[in-house]
Amino acid sequence: MIKGLIFDLDGVITDTAEYHYLAWKSLAEKLDIEIDREFNEQLKGISRMESLDLILKHGNKEKDYTKEEKQKLAAQKNEEYQQYIEKITHDDLLPGIEALLKEVQERNLKMALASASKNGPKIIRQLEIEDLFKGTVVDPASLNAGKPDPEIFLKGAELLGLDPTECIGLEDAEAGIEAINAAGMFSVGVGSETAMQKANYFVKETKQLKLKDILKQAEK
Ligand code: BG6
Ligand code: MG
């Protein structure tokens, strides 16, 4: 029986996946590296430093920067990203998400947040949903391995006091779906059929995420 839902943040609850993309694209351009949306799919769910490494590799420049220089580049990306998220308000919940969160509460299901983002706490505060995730936000700095490793979702289940099989994970990233599957949870994806190939159930847009349908699929 399902007792909890573990949410990714960027691209599921709010459209920050787009802001990550824009900020990385702008940094990549300064480094003379071209990235497009197709390449960006690989960056979803991946930590800041790992994302930078993938971009540098994509431009054959992985050996051009020292560790310190890479830290500066990642900080530069984060500064631009933070300018975007500064403007986030409650109205920036993606379509259908407010209703979904309400349904989850009404059914007395538990919720946790499994985001790789160190900006996560700030974003949920601005979205005015932090009360829903009291004590159930996994700290990405505490992880030994990022997505696609299952650790972040397993920690989410632990924070909820649930067995992974009692949880559903929701993701927009390929790496995230792999992490949920490896954690032994039912995976729900939001995105294109290609990106969401490995999801146990997927919808194209957040407004199609209905708790009733999700539970029906997961408990089948
Ligand atoms: C994930 C995003 O949620 O967080 C990635 O999907 C991002 O794109 C990662 O790189 C880390 O985010 P931040 O805010 O700590 O740079
Ligand atoms: Mg995401």
TrEMBL record:
One function term, GO molecular function aspect: beta-phosphoglucomutase activity
Subcellular location: Cytoplasm
Protein name as it appears in the record: Beta-phosphoglucomutase
Keywords, alphabetical: Carbohydrate metabolism, Cytoplasm, Isomerase, Magnesium, Metal-binding, Phosphoprotein
Catalytic site: 8, 10
Organism: Alkalibacterium kapii
Any one GO BP annotation for this protein: carbohydrate metabolic process
Entry's Gene Ontology cellular component terms: cytoplasm
Cofactor binding, per record: Binds 2 magnesium ions per subunit.
Record field: catalytic activity: beta-D-glucose 1-phosphate = beta-D-glucose 6-phosphate
Cofactor: Mg(2+)
Pfam families assigned to the protein according to its UniProt record, in alphabetical order: Hydrolase
InterPro entries according to UniProt: B-phosphoglucomutase_hydrolase, Beta-PGM, HAD-like_sf, HAD-like_SPP, HAD-SF_hydro_IA, HAD_sf, PGP-like_dom2
Site (described: Important for catalytic activity and assists the phosphoryl transfer reaction to Asp8 by balancing charge and orienting the reacting groups): 115, 147
Metal-binding recorded as keyword: yes
Broad class of the protein's primary localization: cytoplasm
Binding site for substrate: 8-10, 24, 43-48, 51, 77, 115-119, 147
Record: residues binding Mg(2+): 8, 10, 171-172
Family note: Belongs to the HAD-like hydrolase superfamily. CbbY/CbbZ/Gph/YieH family.
E.C. number: 5.4.2.6
